[in-house]
Design goal:
Keywords: Membrane, Transmembrane, Transmembrane helix. This protein has about 775 residues and is mostly helical. Helix content is about 55%, strand content about 5%. Mean pLDDT is about 80; it is low at about 1-25, about 535-545 and about 765-780.
Length: about 775
């Protein structure tokens, strides 16, 4: 360990330190994929040594290879393998299972990065980012409003104010005016002020988690270098110096969202009391104080929206500054308003009693309406961007971002409605003592059964298509494995694996149908909630009894489905906290969903790439400059995405001396289609041009990895022809036992892996970048 650390310390970022012998040592830097692994498995050796890094992410070598640069003759003819292990960034700690509760925030953050490719539309791109940030802000307000609905409305206002409900729950007795004999806390305003501690505590928890992860992830400074032109060359923004350094933006958004959450709590407490004071004949002093408090809340809300709208990401340089104290102290100002609202609500008000619901219908209805309008506007902006530079491979013709934003809003609505419905059922088992949650949440529950029906129909169609593809693939399997094919079960199994792998390409259709159906059903639920408050006489005169019965059945079924889903959600998180295998599964979700920086929501799970990409960049940059050796970065699955992002961050001179080997890579199949502005054809072509050489391996049975579709000077194409999977159809001399169908795993087992790695290393020469063939104009060909 100590010898390894001393060797690394000789490599300076500027290349000014003493170099080891420049003997052409070859290095293979391995980067694992989703789910993680151990360095022993990656290096195929039980004795490994940590070269650099910590318990969270580190680079390992075999014990025999620690001083490989000092003894080049012993390693001539084979590369020195190094393993970068980053799985603890996402799935190493059991507490990360609780990040499931932040799922809507993560999804809306993904929508920010799904914008279409656009050139010369700077203002439109900024408008797109602004709309996504505002959508993320509404999700924060929705979450806190749901907690306020549970704590303030259902518990403190409705249940504690009703004798039958309060008697069933003794822990609410001191809040009930009928149980506690008019105790000090039994006044409605004081009950609300005390219950406000619950959403305030949740806000503090979100702030704390965001601040802690911000210190660990966003504050990791990447390698400093000069910016490269990317507007004309088509290079992706991932190569900009400040792309993986979102310290300033996340701090700014954290302040704004924390203030918005506290203002939501203050509004729930203060406006409830102000509504009573504004009645005719009310106390003039309290009426004036209520209006003054409402004006202050409006002014603070305008300030929060201005902070969110004022500034986006700074990517062209390392922005080491933080915003002014006015922005950083915004949460403190909101907290002061919350305290003032609690004091105002706790004032003695004779005649004020709990009756009906708090004004939650207007709140949730307004949030749903704003979210729908933002998603529609986002779709219009995305369409304009797509028309400027159409990309036929882009998912949903550039509308993937708005569709995913709609799903984030739907997730937030389902989670808030599920919590409210289940708490209401728990507090009032008979369903007759308290009014229950707002009408809109009930109507939102009614859209769940129709949505499930649509998804079941779509799932049936996809299953039918897969069956047809499996039948067609059986003939292809027989052609790929010439000889005897007397094992129909074996042929069918291989064909089924190939057909199932194509389901990944149907994901845009699934998202499009789900988001469109959700938008239409959500609009219907909003209209239904707005028109449901009819007079009893008018309701009695309705003739569509069948429709009404179906609606009531859908509402009841949807309510139970939401509750069941929420219980399963919490149970899964609890199981993942105790079960390492389940925690690993959840870690895979975060490996895919938290690759991108927090650009739209500061309470989303942190971006592990803001640690992993600088790690890889520093390692490749310092080792290459110190040794002038040959380096191949070898990435599997999500590791190939990290490898590509790290290669973009290298200085051009070092980038020309690096080979890229990817296998099971989603670079084009997933990232290129869903994130075209950053992994589209122009960006991947620029990557292939910038590195010395790039080879990609894929299988027809792999549901994640696929070809990148680029031609180049490493051969006819960047992609090698699809690898056979399994390696042999039946028993052979090389495979006396049946060869398994590997799918997305164990690419190193195929002989093609070693062939391509040797081919890449043979192209690289110590100290001198490989030369590319030139065309007639003298420019290097890509």
């Amino acid at each position: 360990m100590e010898r390894a650390q001393r060797h690394v310390s000789t490599a300076g970022a500027d290349g000014s330190t003493t170099r080891p012998e420049e003997s052409g040592t070859a290095l293979e830097l391995l980067v694992h994929g989703v789910g993680g692994t151990t360095p022993e498995e990656m290096l195929d050796d039980p004795r490994t040594v940590r070269i650099t890094g910590d318990d969270t992410a580190a680079v390992f070598r075999r014990a025999d290879d620690v001083d490989a640069e000092s003894a080049p003759d012993e390693h001539r003819g084979r590369p020195v393998p190094e393993a970068y292990v980053w799985c603890n960034l996402t799935s190493g700690n059991g507490t990360r299972a609780l990040w499931l509760l932040l799922l809507p925030f993560m999804v809306v953050n993904l929508a920010h990065w799904m914008r279409p490719t656009a050139r010369g539309r700077t203002r439109t791109v900024r408008l797109y980012g602004l709309l996504v940030r505002l959508t993320g802000l509404t999700l924060t307000v929705l979450l806190v409003a749901a907690v306020c609905e549970v704590a303030l409305d259902l518990a403190a206002w409705q249940c504690a104010g009703t004798s039958a409900c309060a008697e069933r729950h003794s822990w609410l007795g001191f809040l009930s005016p009928t149980v506690s004999d008019d105790g000090w806390w039994s006044r409605p305003g004081r009950r609300l002020a005390l219950a406000a501690l619950v959403p305030a505590a949740l806000t503090w928890l979100l702030w704390y988690l965001s601040h802690r992860t911000w210190s660990a992830y966003e504050s990791q400074e990447p390698l400093s270098r000069s910016p490269e032109p990317d507007e004309e060359t088509g290079r992706t923004a991932l190569g900009r110096p400040g792309f993986w350094y979102g310290r300033r933006l996340v701090a700014r958004l954290r302040a704004a969202h924390t203030a918005a959450a506290l203002l939501t709590v203050a509004a729930a407490v203060g406006t409830s009391a102000a509504r009573f004071d504004h009645r005719p004949g009310g106390p003039a002093l309290l009426d004036a104080l209520g209006r003054l408090l409402e004006a202050a809340l409006v002014a603070a809300t305008v300030g929060v929206v201005w902070v969110v709208c004022r500034r986006g990401r700074s990517e062209r340089r390392l922005d080491r500054e933080l915003d002014a104290r006015l922005v950083r102290r915004l949460p403190l100002a909101a907290l002061v308003l919350l305290v003032l609202a609690a004091v105002y609500a706790g004032w003695e008000r004779p005649g004020w009693e709990s009756a009906g619901r708090l004004p939650g219908d207007a709140t949730f209805g307004g949030i749903a309406l704003v979210q729908g309008l933002l998603v529609i506007a986002l779709g219009a902006v995305a369409h304009v961007l797509y028309r400027t530079h159409p990309d036929p491979r882009a998912a949903m013709r550039g509308l993937a971002g708005p569709a995913v934003a709609m799903l984030a809003c739907a997730l937030g609505g389902v989670m808030s409605g599920g919590v409210s419905q289940r708490v209401a059922d728990w507090l009032d088992g008979t369903g007759t003592n308290i009014p229950g949650p707002p009408v809109l949440l009930t109507w939102q529950a009614s859209v769940i059964p129709p949505l499930l029906v649509v998804l079941l129909v779509l799932g049936g169609w996809l299953a039918w298509r897969t069956w047809l593809l499996r039948r067609a693939a059986m003939a292809t399997v027989e052609q790929d494995y010439p000889g005897r094919h007397n094992d129909t079960t074996r042929t069918r199994r291989i064909a089924r694996a190939r057909a199932a792998a194509t389901l990944t390409d149907r994901a845009p259709l699934l998202v499009a149908v789900t988001s469109t159906t959700t938008l239409l059903l959500g609009a219907a639920a909003l209209v239904g909630a707005m028109t449901s408050d009819k007079a009893p006489a008018e309701a009695a005169q309705r003739t569509h009894s069948f429709v009404e019965g179906a609606a009531e059945t859908a509402q009841a079924l949807g309510s139970w489905l939401i509750g069941l889903g929420f219980i399963l959600f919490v149970t899964w998180g609890r199981r993942a906290y105790k079960d390492p295998s389940a925690r690993r599964t959840i870690g895979i979700l975060w490996d895919v969903g938290t690759f991108w920086p927090r650009a739209a929501h500061p309470f989303a799970p942190p971006c592990y790439a803001e640690r992993a990409v600088p790690d890889l960049t520093w390692r490749m940059e310092t080792w290459t400059r110190a040794t002038a050796g040959r380096l191949v970065i070898s990435g599997h699955s999500q590791g190939s995405v990290l490898a590509a992002a790290a290669a973009w961050q290298l200085t051009p001179s070092v980038r020309k001396r690096v080979g890229l080997l990817t296998y099971g890579s989603p670079l084009e199949r997933l990232y290129g289609r869903w994130f075209p502005a950053h992994f589209g054809p122009a960006a991947l072509s620029a990557l292939h041009h910038d590195v010395d050489c790039w080879r990609n391996l894929h299988r027809p049975t792999d549901p994640i990895g696929g070809p990148v579709g680029l031609t180049g000077d490493c051969g006819p194409e960047v992609d090698r022809e699809p690898l056979k999977d399994p390696l042999a159809y039946g028993r052979t001399d090389e495979h006396p036992l049946p060869a398994p169908i590997l799918g997305h795993s164990d690419y190193q087992a195929d002989p093609a892996f070693a062939e391509e790695r040797t081919r890449l290393l043979a192209r690289l020469h110590p100290g001198v970048p490989a030369q590319r063939p030139q065309d007639d104009s003298g420019r290097s060909s890509a």
